[in-house]
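Subject: SERF-like protein

B.,
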Amino acid sequence: MTRGNQRERDRERAQARSGNKGKQPKGDGLTPEQRRERDAKALKEKAARKAAQASAGGINAGGGGNANDKK
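Prediction pasted inline below.
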């Protein structure tokens, strides 16, 4: 049995399975600076929502202690 080209055949099969996608550029049409600004704004909004939930006594609000601390 000849197995010399197994690696090449496996690469071809893997490429066929992936649909020849390869690396594609980001499709949002933003420059890196615009992307950073967008992401920073999203993180600030997320932090504000989390802080509001914690101050309102949400599910995850609390001291973060566990039951083993009680003696």
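The chain is about 50% helix and 0% strand.

T.
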